[in-house]
Amino acid sequence: MPILLFGSRHLDLITGEKTTTIRKIWKKPLSQGDRLHCYWNLVSKERKKLFEAEVTDVEVTKFADLVKNDELACEEGFNDASELESEFKKMYPEHTSDESLFQVIRFHKLPMNEWEGAQINEKAMITKRADILFDVGKFDKSVICYSAALKIDPDDVYILNKKGDNLSRLGNFQEALKCYDQALRMEPDNGYIWNNKAIALLNSNRPEDALKASDNAMEIDENNLIVLYWRGFIFEMLGRFDDALKCYDKILDLNPNDPEAWNAKGNLLSQIDRAEDALECYDHSLELCLEDEPDASTWNRKGNALMELNRFKEAVECYDKALSMEPDNEIFLSNKGVAFMELNRFEEAVLCFKKVLIINPNNGDAQILMDECLENL
What we know:
Blueprint: E1 3-6, H1 12-15, E2 20-24, E3 35-43, E4 46-62, H2 63-66, H3 70-75, H4 81-91, E5 101-109, H5 122-135, H6 139-152, H7 157-169, H8 173-186, H9 191-203, H10 207-220, H11 225-237, H12 241-254, H13 259-271, H14 275-292, H15 296-308, H16 312-325, H17 330-342, H18 346-359, H19 364-376
Parallel strand pairs: 1-3
Antiparallel strand pairs: 2-5, 3-4, 4-5
Helix pairs in contact: 5-6, 6-7, 7-8, 7-9, 8-9, 9-10, 9-11, 10-11, 11-12, 12-13, 13-14, 14-15, 15-16, 16-17, 17-18, 18-19
């Protein structure tokens, strides 16, 4: 019973597009008609069965010929033959002389009712792989897996929603909306999906439609913190700042220890020229974040609020806090430079702008500000 182990990079196994693999020749080479048992080799203690297959063809080739065949290398999942050569030398360090023999195995995936061994829950296996890829931010790959799972069960609401989330993160909002709409036809009372639809509509520059989707989510659960947070952001995009503040205040009534809500409220208050109130919000956010981990962006925004109040020395201290976490952030450095300018500390401002230009020589604003400082030295 020949067993083939595949690395998780071979996602085309899931879609059925991969029907070839290359392995060093075995003591008993494969033959046409042999049965293969194929597994993910995720980690040595957790091998997951993929499928069973039948060998349709086997070709034996020398390593010297293999490393010249770009087409075959691409079938194996490499960009070209040179990449295959590099990887195979790592995989088979004692089997890469010119005369070393490899077998090019072509196979046909068998339907589950023809398997010899134990059958699997194929949809669950593919969905788990998709979830892992989603969680590590490989959205282009996870969407392939979710699409494959939906071929098995086109009406799975969880998978439809996750595929929509993937597509949204890839910027394909129209296709994401199709997924959410299909899911909502089956579960119209799913507030979580209504909220995801609202986010996709907002990102599609359709804030009025986003608000309607948010209305549906609110009818289902008016105290859902995530729905309230995004509803506040939708109101901001519509210029309805009082309504946005009500959303953030409601979140903070329900959970006074939500740093994101304090931060969002602070950003909005800064936007409507209520810097003192914004400062109070940023302080709350920072207190909560510091219990967990520091937040550089909030320190920067607090610095900006202090600048609006002409409290430049305190602003510099905030920018220093932000820069201690992100020392090469050109925005933080520029803000600190401007604060030094307001304090007439032009030499220190020049140093900030110089560092910005080292990080990004195309930052025209930093160049102009530095030139202005030099004129005042």
